[in-house]
Amino acid sequence: MARIALMTLHGQGVILKDYADDLRRHLAQRLDTAWEDVAFEPVYCQGILQPSMRAVWQRTLSGSQVRQQEWRTFLLFGLADMVGLEARKELPGSTYEQTQLEIARKLLAARDQLGGNGPVVFLTHSLGCQILSNYLYDAQCVPGDITAGIWRDIDAHAMEIAGHPLNDDERAFLRGDTIACWVTTGCNIPVFVAADNRMRIRPIRAPNDHFRWLNLYDPDDACAWPLQPLGAGYDTLVHDMRVKTTHHGDPSRHTEPMRHTDYWGDEDVLRVVSGTLDELLAESTAEAAAWPVWAPSAASSMRASASSVDTAPSDNQT
């Protein structure tokens, strides 16, 4: 039985179902036998949007002549994702609702591996950060205040998610009550909230007293943003951490848009993720199924151990 769950959610662009395989391999190497105690559940949402985007791209290639194809695919698949997820999201069966269903199904799959409610670490990239933020924000709201997605009436989606009526423990787990740490990479949440009045910008609430949110961003990655400058609660909930992304030390890949896609292959990022899992596992025992099972200072000590990750707070306050 696993003792901790690691959930991943990809960003926008051309994403394959095996997107997390390299990450799994690198983390397994770092954690060694401790990896056996991790329930690894990648969430894959591109199957919802990607077929339509591929059709548009193929029609473009066959019906016209275009250059800068790498940039075009990056923009088409990226922007179409962002627009599609928000468009008519209040309608039943919307893309917004379908992506939340995928998250919920994978959460319950992780819960099965844990044998019940237990600590969860989320690793999300780029658009995946906004998707999970929406999911958790909706889950924390009063149902009558939600106008889109599965949290308008989570029990109405029980059969789609679990195949049976949800019990209180399952609802709590789906709500994210046991998330120990959320690691965001290449996060673009500011793009979605920048047009809002500052009074309307609000992050999720910490789901428990031990929750930590680590936001890893490369200052040279124009698609990645620090979150603390948003204020309105982000400044106290999130710890921004600067990294210099290189794919396993290959400096030739440190160019746009490659640097935006290389976070999960970067040594500093892998050190933070594996170290977080290591510390949470060290605080738990094979017999302890009760919640919570880790030390509140786990994320803090991780920051100190990631010596090559720049965490200077002054840059985050501009």
Mean pLDDT: 84
CATH topology: Rossmann fold
Strand content: 5-15%
| Count of β-strands | 6
Main sheet makeup: 6 strands, parallel
**Corresponding CATH superfamily:** Alpha/Beta hydrolase fold, catalytic domain
| Terminal CA distance | 45 Å
Structure description:
The structure is a single chain. The chain has helices at residues 21-31, 46-63, 69-86, 95-114, 127-140, 158-161, 168-174, 189-193, 234-237, 258-261, 267-282, 298-305, and strands at 4-9, 38-43, 120-125, 179-185, 212-217, 238-242. Helix 1 (21-31) crosses helix 11 (267-282) and helix 11 packs antiparallel against helix 12 (298-305). Mean pLDDT is 84; it is low at 286-309 and 311-318. Strand 5 (212-217), helix 9 and strand 6 (238-242) form a beta-alpha-beta unit. The protein is an alpha/beta fold and 318 residues long. Helices cover 41% and strands 11% of the residues. The chain has a single domain (4-317), classed as 3-Layer(aba) Sandwich (Rossmann fold), CATH 3.40.50.1820.
Core attributes:
318 residues; alpha/beta; Rossmann fold; 12 helices; globular; disordered C terminus
Question: What does this entry show, briefly?
Answer:
This protein has 318 residues and is of the alpha/beta class.
Layout of strands and helices, then pairs:
Elements: E1 4-9, H1 21-31, E2 38-43, H2 46-63, H3 69-86, H4 95-114, E3 120-125, H5 127-140, H6 158-161, H7 168-174, E4 179-185, H8 189-193, E5 212-217, H9 234-237, E6 238-242, H10 258-261, H11 267-282, H12 298-305
Parallel strand pairs: 1-2, 1-3, 3-4, 4-5, 5-6
Helix pairs in contact: 1-11, 2-3, 11-12
